[in-house]
Amino acid sequence: MDNLSFNTHNIGKLINLAGRQRMLSQRIAFLASASTLFKDLSGQLDETIKLFEQSHAILVQGSHEFPSCDVNIELREFYLGKGQGDQKIKDYLKMAREVVKGSSTETSQFFSFAANGIVPLLEGAVNIYHKISLQISNEMTANLQNKDKVVKETLSCMADIAKQTKLISFNSSIIAARSGDVGKEFSVVVIEINKLIGEMNILIESGLAYIDKNSELKK
Fold it and tell me: Within 10 A of 1 (CB to CB), how many other CB atoms are there?
């Protein structure tokens, strides 16, 4: 769990999980108030609270698939730092249970906390996960651009080598022609070298064209 980080595979699932928390919080508010009139709804409320708590634990503590909020400074501050998200959510669930039991917490106070405190809080969590997703996307784009740059530089070096080799081959063909019968065998080698240079140039041009095309699509 400590070695996990946010990536393209888990960030989308975390965004969905955080978004579902917002929906579950509203369901908890409805069931808590309705349970004061219809006691048979208390079972549904308990199940919803358990599901909410499980999801919240994953978002804060992480799991075998997801990193904990400690991995990201903004998330850690949101849940465990100044944002006090973790404590506020625990207080909210406690209030929901108190409403059902008919204890001190008034229904109006509970609804006010749900609407003005918890829902905006959970929306804030979703926004942070979206922000992390954007950061991951930008980092991936930057990495791809860097890789393209390295490949392009390598292909350019190969192109320079091909030009130099072609020049050497050209000079060698002149020498072979001047050498008469002695140079005939060598001229065959020169021809093969020229063929290889031609094939290399085609590959280099194809590679550079592919990189340029991808660069245009990323803009």
Answer: 13
Q: What angle do CA 87, 125, 48 make, to 5 degrees?
A: 65
Q: What single DSSP character describes residue 37? A: T
* Cβ neighbours for 207, distance < 8 A, ≥ 6 positions apart: 151, 155
Blockwise average pLDDT, block size 10, the chain, 219 residues:
78 93 91 78 87 94 92 94 94 85 71 90 94 87 72 73 70 68 63 72 72 60
Give the separation between CA 147 and CA 128, rounded to whole angstroms: 29
Global pTM exceeds 0.85: no
How far apart, in whole angstroms, are the C-alpha atoms of residue 173 and residue 130? 63
Helix axes 85-101, 119-178, angle to 10 degrees: 140
Q: Write out the two tokens for 197.
A: 């240079």
Gap between the Cα atoms of 72 and 129, Å rounded: 10
Distance (Å, rounded) from C-alpha 31 to C-alpha 43?
10
Dump pLDDT digits (tens) for 166-192. Answer: 776 676 677 667 666 656 666 666 676
Q: Among candidates 129, 142, 118, which has minimal Cα distance to 67?
A: 129
Q: What is the DSSP annotation of 185-203? A: HHHHHHHHHHHHHHHHHHH
d(CA 166, CA 161): 8
Q: What is the DSSP letter of 80?
A: T
Closest residue by Cα to residue 118 from 49, 67, 58: 49
